[in-house]
Amino acid sequence: MKFQAIKGVRDILPPESALWTRVEQTAHKVFGTFGFGEIRLPIFEPTNLFVRAVGGETDIVSKEMYTMPDQETAHIYGLQHSLVEWKIKSGDLQTAEAFQQLTVSLLVFIMQAQQENLIELEEVGLDAVNDLTTAAKELHDLISNRSDSAEALIWNQVAELVERIRLASGTLIVGDDLSLRPEATASVCRAYIEHGMQTLPGNVKLYYMGPMFRRERPQKGRYRQFYQIGAEVLGTSDAPGIDAEVIEMLMSFFERLKLKGAVLNINSIGDKNCRPAYVEKLRAELQKVRELLGADSQRRIETNPLRVLDSKLENEQGIIEKLPRIAEHLCADCRAHYDEVKRQLGLRGIAYQENWRLVRGLDYYMRTTFEITAPGLGSQNAVCGGGRYDGLVELLGGPAATKGIGFAIGTDRLVLSLQEAGEGETQGGPAGKAGGPDVYLAWFGAAAQSAAIGLARRLRDAGFVVELPAVEMKFGKSLGLADRLKALHAVIVGDNELAAGVFTVKRLSDGTQQKLAEAELFSYLRAARTA
Ligand code: HAM
Q1: Which of 362, 367, 403, 409 has the most ligand 1 atoms within 8 A of CB, as the residue to mutate?
Q2: Residue 59 and residue 394: Cα distance in Å, rounded?
Q3: Which of 10, 159, 345, 428 is 20 to 30 Å from 453 at the Cα level?
């Protein structure tokens, strides 16, 4: 049997991983200079956290999450969902009987779990459990007392009870569902509330890096396990200077990495005072052109008309261009905030493009939204997205006055773009400039092995990358391997060297060779490193 990584998930191998390390280390450095501290978050959270924060209607939550029941109550969860999903054909009393028996099993499992202290009946939903119990009993009596002639007559009552059981099962809460995190802003807000961080002085500035999970259709720059480097500012101030500084930090990070051709797009999507009226206006205009739109956009007229503006469909572009624009419908406060964000970006010499169609695919945003595109990525060219989310902490049960803004960089895409621009060579890795070790230590004979082990340790302590063969090899084979590993030097230790108290060092690029005592060898290698 041959195993392969699952679809949309990949390994990141050397030398590419060295570039990842450099990117992450640069983030630690740059974000640190802006006063951000690292937060390490769990990879999974209660599903409801994401439903609440990101929005149950968004693609990310409704279609793309990897969700699983909590292990201890998985059996109850499975039964509960079987009941909810079960379809019974009209008049099929036999299946209805099986359905009734399953309901009894569900109730038994719930009682057992309660006795084992895995769940609290109050939390599961006392009314629903009572309703299930009476409905199951009624259904049992109805079915077992039936006479052949009355089967058709009782069916309506059976169907009603089945429906009652399905509804009651659907409302049971047996332990939380868990989901692999599709993003991390929700977790940061959860942690902010959980640890009472509102009592900390000033704004709370946090950054994170790590894998996220979304069940999307994989393609270049789009994976099911992908990585983000993100940052969030939480506190009571929503000063536009914070928005601008967060963007400045991002641009400094990209500059430090020599990412070329990054374009910053910004927008304001208003707040709860002005956006609803705009959304209604947009919806009304979209209704007028409904027939010209594709199925996705048609659906979004009802669920989230703003997302229609995101459409990449060729034939919808002309229509979208004529739709009303949010910039013309912002309230005075949102307009002033947006104008000040732009002025603050100007103060920092940051170039930007205004893009009125930039609405973002997560529900928590308000006012400032932004995205950065980078070259070399094809259609998945957004290397970073972010925005303001005042109100999210309150929505999750935290202090009402809390404001927030942040971003997340797609690390996979950032790395791809750097590679495409030729900034992704192997340098920066632990191995020397050529991508191989500084020293290949070829030893011949038992006495030489012991000397070589000691020398390897001293060289490594001094920071050199050393390859030490674990078993003795013939001279030609050993030096051949040194070549193939792209070592800069072969250091040879044999009986002659041991007798003379020297090492033979051979520069593999041109074959020049000399005998050096240990101190000279170190100076020679140091000089070669800086040359
Ligand atoms: P997002 O726009 O969903 O925002 O993701 C941010 C970035 O993650 C995207 O611009 C993209 O580079 C990368 N990304 C997203 N999905 C994938 C994927 N399937 N494969 C590869 N890369 C991907 C958020 O996640 C927000 N939490 C950002 C934020 C933080 N807003 C405020 N604070």
Answers
A1: 362
A2: 23
A3: 428
Residue-wise pLDDT for 34-64, tens only, equals 999 999 999 999 999 999 999 988 899 999 9
Mutate to test the pocket of ligand 1, among 45, 59, 226, 369 (most ligand atoms within 8 A of CB): 226
Q: Which residues pair with 467 in a beta bridge?
A: 440
Encoding tokens for residue 6?
A: 């699952």
Q: What is the residue-wise DSSP string for 312-357?
A: --GGGHHHHHTS--GGGG--HHHHHHHHHHHHHHHHTT---EE-TT
- Going from the Cα of 432 to the center of ligand 1, the distance in angstroms, rounded, reads 34
Hey, CA dihedral for 358, 362, 365, 370, is it positive or negative? Answer: negative
- Could you tell me the distance, in angstroms and rounded to a whole number, from the CA of residue 383 to the centre of ligand 1? 8
Cα dist from 407 to 152, 216, 227, 302, 485, whole Å = 61, 20, 13, 28, 41
What sign does the dihedral 517-519-522-528 (CA atoms) show? negative
Ligand 1 in reach of 383 Cβ (< 6 A): yes
CB-CB contact of 241 with 72 (8 Å): no
Q: Is 413 in the pocket of ligand 1 (CB under 6 A)?
A: yes
CA distance 84 to 107: 14
pLDDT tens, 77-90?
889 989 988 899 98
Residue 365: CB within 6 Å of ligand 1?
no
| Ligand 1 contacts CB of residue 424 (under 6 A) | no
